[in-house]
Amino acid sequence: MGGAAAARAWAAVALATVLSFPAEATCPYHCHAPRGRCTLGSENVCECSDPWSAAPDCSRRSCPQGPAWFDYPQPDGSAHQLAECSNAGYCDGSTGVCVCQPGYTGDACQRSVCVADCSGHGECVSIRERAERYDGMQYKYKARYSSWDADMNFGCACHEGWTGPDCTMRLCPFGDDPMTQGTKEIQSVRTFADHRDEVQSILLTADYDIDEVQVVRVQDLKPATGDFPIIGTFALIFDTTDAGGACKICASKAVAKTTDIAMDAAATGSVGDSMREKMQDISPSVIDQVTVSRVDVTGTDSGGIPYEGFEWRITFVGDDIGGNVPQLQVTDLNIASGNDVKVTTWTEREGNEVNGTVSVVFDNTISRPAGGCFSKCFDGKFNVTVPYSARASELDTLIESLPNINQVSTEVRYIGGPGVLWLITFTRNYGDTAELECLHNTSLSGYNNISNPTCDVTTIQDGYFLNGTFALRLGGAVTPALPWNVTREAMAIAIDALDSTFGGINVTRGIYVTDVAAPWEWTGAYEWVVTWIGLKEDLKLELVVDANTTELNGAANEDIAVGTAARPVTFLEQDADETAEVNEVQILDCVCDQPCAGSVTLSLYGRILPRLSPNSSLLDLKAAIESIPEVDLVNITGFSNASGTLCDADGVTHAITFLANPGNVPPITLSNSAPMSIRSYLSPGNESFLVRHGDFRNGTHGGMSRDGSRVLQECSGRGFCNRVTGECACYSRWGDSDRVGVHQDAGFGQRKDCSRSTAHINDCPASCLGRGLCRGPTFVCACTSGFTGYACESRTCPTAAAWFDEARPVPDTGNTTSFVNSAVLSATDSASGVTYSAHREQGLTSSHRLATCGGQGVCNGASGVCVCAEGFTGSDCGSTTCSGQSLVKGQGGTELFAEGCSGHGSCISMGQAANASRDAITKESYVGEVLPYDEWDKDKNFGCSCERAAYTGPYHDSRGDYFGPDCKRSTCPAGADPERTEVAVDADGNRLVPYPSTLPVSPIEVSSDGRAFNVPGAGTRNLTREAQVAPRFARQRITCNASSGFVIMDFKGTPSVFILSNTSVTGPKGIEASLESMNAMRDVSVHPATSTRLYTGWFRNVTTFYDSNLNQTNTSIVPFNSTCTHRLPDSRDYLPLHGADGVEGTSSELESAECWPFQSLCGVTSDGEPHAVDVTFVSEHGRQPPIKLLSSNLKGGYISFQTVVEGSKESVECSRRGACDLNLGRCVCAPQFGSSNGAFDEGPLGDCGHRHALYGFVLPDMPAAGRSFRDL
Known about the structure:
By secondary structure, the chain is mainly beta. Among the domains are: 20-54, no CATH class; 210-351, no CATH class; 354-461, no CATH class; 466-564, no CATH class; 585-705, no CATH class. It is built from nine helices and 100 strands. The protein has a four-stranded antiparallel beta sheet with strand order 36-37-15-40, covered by helices on one side. Strand 83 and strand 84 form a beta hairpin. The chain is elongated and about 160 Å long.
């Protein structure tokens, strides 16, 4: 390999350098004084002053530290240890200032940046600060948060009315869905009546009747042939498909045909073959409605041809067949061969009938349906023109075109003579319909001597529709008489008046029909559903049976029923229980001896209310509470207070009911933050002012407090929120409400929250758009997977644990779970004073709850895709992004950005970092045991796991570890300080007993058991105790007895190439070369571990070996089948020696050598022992993690690994004799120092670990990557 030539090259460079520079020993760069001072002596080490201790030569300042945003969890599960710039930025070594990555700020990059600085619609606060604030509105909970990110994780606390990660989206009004009230007291009232349609008729007729006469003639055109009588048959067709007028049999609107008629058929008879009987084939009624006569006829036709035959005269008589009858037609003519017969028909006289048009009038001002119209009602008088000959379908269309007539079913009856009857049934009009009218004779005319045509309308039957009144009773109180169609507002007022303690009544009203598929059959019946908003007690509403107050009429079988849970009518009825949603009630007690002086200043929702005096009225108290924007409406009931004042000597209790503030309202308090001039004080001294809140706390003189439990929902769960305008688009049958949610007329429409139903609710919004199931009786959509929204109108976006949210206190139920770094250690609900302990919910702490798009993105409801804020990624925006995009080239040279870590690492989560455990010896990352880390950011917080032992150049074996938030910087090669007395260090880096500086000049070897020996000429002796703990290279042993196959080894997470079981120990493709192909293992020495076969010797003029086992010198010829290596002086890196086979140079040029018989990785020795191979780490100092088996397919044996010697050599950045260029990962060595081989000689490690013999010695530039130092 050119070893002699390499030695001569190094010597030449050294000689050239010595001629130019004097020798000098000093600290690197004089410690950049005055940043540090040099401790001259045997070690020449810089002692740097703060803050210049970031580099051995005092060239870099250190930067502030903070908990790392991302790091590797420790064996005890703890993480987020202190790190420079919090591992979210880089330290500017010249200034000591952190340069933060995008998304981070602070002197140590220890705070996250709020998105868009909250867009001017919010405040950027830490998660701890948000947890501790409380105002009942913007900050709804009060808790203590102390996890690792408490003062690091910042987010937007949006102002009222705004939401989103950057506070750019508007919130819509919140309200309480009246359909989801919990188990409240619900009763119903329903009226009943039979249904009957209105039926009217229109008769069109005249005074005089003329019957139709038609003729059928059979002519024999060859009478001279003497073939009379005529032989043959024919049939007649009667086609009424286009007939109109008064022809009754024309109603069939079909084509009828007689059976065959003989050419000489008689006019009448009883044998079934007469013309009159044949007419029965057309219609059974015709046989009695025609007369027939027959005559013989002779003559000459129009062509002068004589004929003879028969002629039948058919007269259509009777009331059922009058008018113009369709002409009979001849068909199926069957004549004997040779005959010439013709059959013809004609109308001799047409029947008379009425024709023309008639104007039908509907006057809605005379009589309008009592319950309204099925669709929209129009007041007025309307008419339509109807032709006399109209068919039933035409009549339906024309009558239905009149406003307020929704659907009719018409029958046309032909009454004979010139008349016709239209029978009209109003199938979709409620109740008693106004009678139609005719404009007589204005457009009717006659046909064939008609006279006095008339049009008359008659009501056959009136439709049913309810009318009258009814009354209800609750206990001993009775409502006034309520009309049959009482509005829901009036119904609520009437029932609420029965007892003033109800706290609100909600009533819905809808029409009631027996068949919901036929709403047009409504008879005026209604269904009222009564819900007691403010009570959890069971009540019983009853019907008053009194003819003076309950009297329904207008239909048949009228009735009224009241439904309860025991006897339901609507199946919505239920008895109240503790789940009922109720309004908040707070109790205020005040007592003050007279004359009472002073004032009271109250606070609510963090706002100071107007000052009140002891003599303030209840209206004053009400006005003060309602003066703040958070409160819409309260009701105040006073107990034991005839004067109606705030306080008196006997004491007053006020029950304050929050009618328009669903949910749990924060308590009213005496304001301690008010200016001193208006703070509360009462005199003369026997005074008391107390506010009670929470469930079931009694006032001194009456009343009881209770927590509000009505659930707030955006748009009340009955509308869609427009995030741009902040306005609710209410679903069908829902609209704006009053401020209370009771829907009384006085406050109608003042809150645009969609909490008021505008019609009876019997279905879900938009029927859930076919994307969900409608759940009754609340009629709330249960959306199918993938859809959300109150009407399932939006696609769902993925959810993730929120990175930033408001910590919530959760009651300690005894099922709490303790864990490391809990997000909420304890919390106190300021409203109730209850202290809560830490716990988890669904795997999450009481903060960082599941949120759409992780709370760091906006959900596109049309596509179900999250649009993430900057710094977050993933389909659910639940993960942080890794810094450091690297520019790569795509196809065609297109520039692409690869995500994260600058191409020098992988983006992993904290959980994955925990799984990449740290070796207990080296703290290096490699696949191993799983460490216990179960914090909230386990699968959310991502960072760069940077490449280790990466090539940084310029020397072949120069390696460093990339580091930083984006892996853009790299550590420099490390090694032992050549200026210090080399020492051994323990696993924690503590120095052991120094290696003595007065060692023999001759090379020394130390066996694995610490026994020392030297080579001939130096005298064999045992080393002192100090020498026995001298720094040592780490050595590991591989044992394998397999017969075939291959293995892949792993070191520090880096896999080796395939290594065959018969691979030799040394050589270009040997085990040593295979291991050195891994980045993490730059330079190793590999040799058989069997001690009896190890030879170490010196080469002078004869081949001499020293047997370390026999402790004697042997002189012999190097065996031909053995493998020998040589080394440069004091080097630990051995090179192949070819000896008699053709070593380059003479043996006298080589100073030492080791030889072993040939051995493969796996196999069995002649003694039956498995092959054992020792791997000595030359370039990696200190203790090393074990080599591991990654995979194998070995046959007939096993492979094992063990540590023989734990390394104890020092490893310092740039060997403490240079400055590290962190941007390149290269050492800039101080003068007199250069790259070493790990043992203080020149080499390819780039670590400044070699001290040149003469000042100014510079290691020559190395060859291109891919060639090693030994190739020179």
